[in-house]
């Protein structure tokens, strides 16, 4: 029976080899990597030869100034970093005082606040119950964390085209469209109008999402299409919940997801503006690394589907 390439590679490589690859990348030379790994240069050079023989391709290019990874070497380095990160998570779960499967999930703040609480409660009540480590961050940083193996999956808005430089291939499944509304403090002059255009919004004070956030990009696109300049923000804040409170205090207009707005509207602390044209909905998806099935990600998908 022929030996599968993955099985052959697993038989020849050790985790120590993966550490060596990363040490070479970080040090930029055999000498620096040997010092970091507490090896002699000949021993490290021999180990690198064994690693490259296992892969069957050169992973580093030797130059007068040191060594640099080849194109295939960069792929190997991404995989080495991911495998070592996963090994660290495995060690943490194995030695935990109360062993329980740990789902590491990332989400932008508006999903974490408005969508995930009920989903995570369902996971905690499942069998076996899942322990959850939640990372709240902006979407670009979440994608980087997923590619690096720091989280198992994301529940996030996602760009129309996934970045191509994230290393491991990502898979995603659309869950729903998130709606966003422009809000104003009670008694704001625009609050009573039947139609509010983007030119009028450009003249107002604003509590803006962070510059690199998806909601900020949605706003910028709306103002650009209306031929209006983006207003200078009075305050910039990443959290939709915080932004609702800032708007309620009269610091300016804001844009927030519908999922975080219901209570504030019911209490009359903010007003929703009748903006025309409205901000288009943005898709929210479950995103994970392609490859072998992860039962924790399957459990998250089931809990999200139950929410629909």
Automatic annotation (TrEMBL):
It comes from the Bacteria. Residues 13-70 form the HTH lysR-type domain. It holds the Pfam family HTH_1. One of its GO terms (molecular function) is DNA-binding transcription factor activity. GO terms for cellular component: cytosol. Signal peptide: none annotated. Keywords: DNA-binding, Transcription, Transcription regulation. PROSITE patterns: HTH_LYSR (PS50931). Belongs to the LysR transcriptional regulatory family. This is LysR family transcriptional regulator. It comes from Ramlibacter agri.
